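Changelog-linked ticket: adenosine-5'-diphosphate example.
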Amino acid sequence: MKSKPVTLATRLTLWYTAASTLLFLLVASIVYYVIAAVLTQQVDDDLEEDIEDFDNIYITQGIETLWSSLLQEATEDGANQILFRLYSNEGVLINSSDRTVWNDLPPMPGLADYFTQESDAVLSSVHLDGHEHPARMIYAVIGDGNTRIILQVVESLEEREDLLEMFRLSIVLALPLLIFLSFAAGWFMVRRSLYGVEEVTNTAIDISNGALSERVTPGDRGEEIERLSGTFNSMLDKIQALIRGMREMNDNIAHDLKSPLARIRGIAETTLTGDQNQEQYHDLAANTIEECDRLLHLINTMLDLAETEAGLGSTMTLINLTALVREACELYQPLATDHGINLDCSHDAADVSITGNRQFLQRLIGNMLDNAIKYTEPEGVVSISQQIENQDVLIKIADTGQGISHDELPNIFERFYRCDSSRTKPGTGLGLSLALAIAKAHFGNIKVESNPKQGSLFTVSFPLASSVHSRQDLGSKY
Ligand code: ADP
């Protein structure tokens, strides 16, 4: 069976405890070694000071007074704490304080040489068998001229060792307390910081149980958690809007499929039940084909929309946009003429190329021209022009048609949306949604300005990027 994973809170707390324990041990070790070094230095300073004092006594008051001063200090400190020895200039022992506990002390090699060279005092540490604590030892020459002798002082480091022992003991005793406290502090901090994550998780659980309108409430849980909950909330808003959009689209599709299907069924029923002549049967078949075409057009537009929104990346090539618009103009000229509309496509713009999908770009321009012609009364004018502005190429489609009311203007790019005034004209309400999706798939956009009864101006923009062939001739018409 798979074991339960360790929670992030436990992991972080253990890491925190381990890190603070290690840090504590590191700091304690540094302090320990500094204290040990300072204490040794203190003993050395004392020994050197003693040598200086006894040197003065020897020079000013002679060897007898020196010896009695040494004995007095040895008695005061204790024979097991300090040892004094005097050596002649040939390295022969002259006198020694009580050395019962210092018998193992090794003699200093080359003592006589040391005397001849008159070196500075020599300090060293000694570890004697049977002695619990180490000792510090100094040899130095005292006196002057012919009276020079060697003084050896050995001092036990018991006091220093006791102090260090106490320090070690306090660290060992403090360690469990420190581990406990850092674990408790770590646990508290981690729980506090992960509280926000838990809130997000709980909301996610509620949502997966169906409460789609639930949101994480904003608070003061730290910038990272607030960003996470903000992103989570906005993601939920988008998902909810998407679901709403899909529901609306389903309704619209169902509605738009229902009418032509009902009509086709009506035609079929009439064909079956009625007693029609040849010409009437012909008309009924033609009507069925027309309704089927309308249905196919609707379904194809929806498929194109889905394809465009999925991205046209791999189908893009370098396209001469100017030529493409010119061709579209020529294609729509007969339709405009049929509607009694003057389609103005001057052909003098410099060529501009963009990276794009030819078929979909043709569809975009076609939809815009088709709308302009469809919603403009006979005798009206529709024009298309190319312009370069900053880093964009703009295709402007203007008409002198019925225009769009200011209330309806924000909705015209929504799927299946049709303005009230346009319901008498054929259409699906998908043309502009597809045009905008195509523009966006080419990293472009469509903007519209319109005044009812005066006309509309649609501006399609594409970024020029590096695919521009020419940037001259601003504002020219096709
Ligand atoms: P439709 O199939 O109805 O033309 P579109 O998505 O192409 O659908 O357009 C949505 C609505 O925007 C249209 O129903 C129409 O009311 C309005 N519209 C689009 N282009 C124009 C235009 N050039 N002039 C006036 N109204 C327009």
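Closing comment: Example verified and attached. The CA atoms of residues 245 and 415 lie 9 Å apart. DSSP finds eight helices and twelve strands in the chain.
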